[in-house]
């Protein structure tokens, strides 16, 4: 469901499938574990994901706060049109830095 790639000091988390109540804790544990290990730059890539429920949005907000409090940065990339609309409707596009592609997000760090 989630895979981790390290690139240029950035921890890239690839989300496959859906980010929902059933797997949100796995994402949270994965990212917080890396944060505790000293990682500070995170990119969550949704290129292979099609759906995020409210609990998934909640975990993203929680992770954003924890990462910022630790002096880190979180970016999102690869949101399809429906996911992009979801972030706009919930105004979460003002909380997150969102890039169209992984490459663009990496360039923004």
Could you walk me through the main structural features you see in this protein, from its secondary elements to its overall organization?
The protein has 109 residues and is α/β, with parallel strands linked by helices. The protein has a single domain, classed as Transcription Regulator spoIIAA, CATH 3.30.750.24. Helices cover 40% and strands 33% of the residues. The chain is built from four helices and five strands, in the order ββαβαβαβα. A five-stranded mixed beta sheet has the order 1-2-3-4-5. α2 (54-69) links the parallel β3 (41-52) and β4. α1 runs parallel beside α2 (54-69). The longest helix has 16 residues, at 54-69. It is globular and about 30 Å long. The protein starts with a strand and ends with a helix.
What tags apply to this protein structure?
globular; 109 residues; Transcription Regulator spoIIAA; five-stranded mixed beta sheet; alpha/beta
């Amino acid at each position: 469901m989630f895979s981790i790639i390290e690139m240029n000091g950035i921890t890239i988390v690839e989300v496959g499938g859906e980010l929902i109540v059933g797997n949100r804790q796995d994402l949270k544990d994965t990212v917080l574990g890396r944060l505790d290990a000293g990682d500070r730059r995170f990119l969550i890539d949704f290129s292979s994901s099609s759906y995020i429920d409210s609990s998934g949005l909640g975990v993203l907000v929680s992770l954003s706060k924890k990462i910022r409090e630790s002096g880190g940065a979180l970016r999102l990339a690869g949101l399809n049109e429906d996911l992009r609309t979801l972030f706009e409707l919930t105004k979460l596009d003002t909380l997150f830095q969102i890039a169209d592609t992984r490459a663009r997000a990496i360039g923004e760090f």
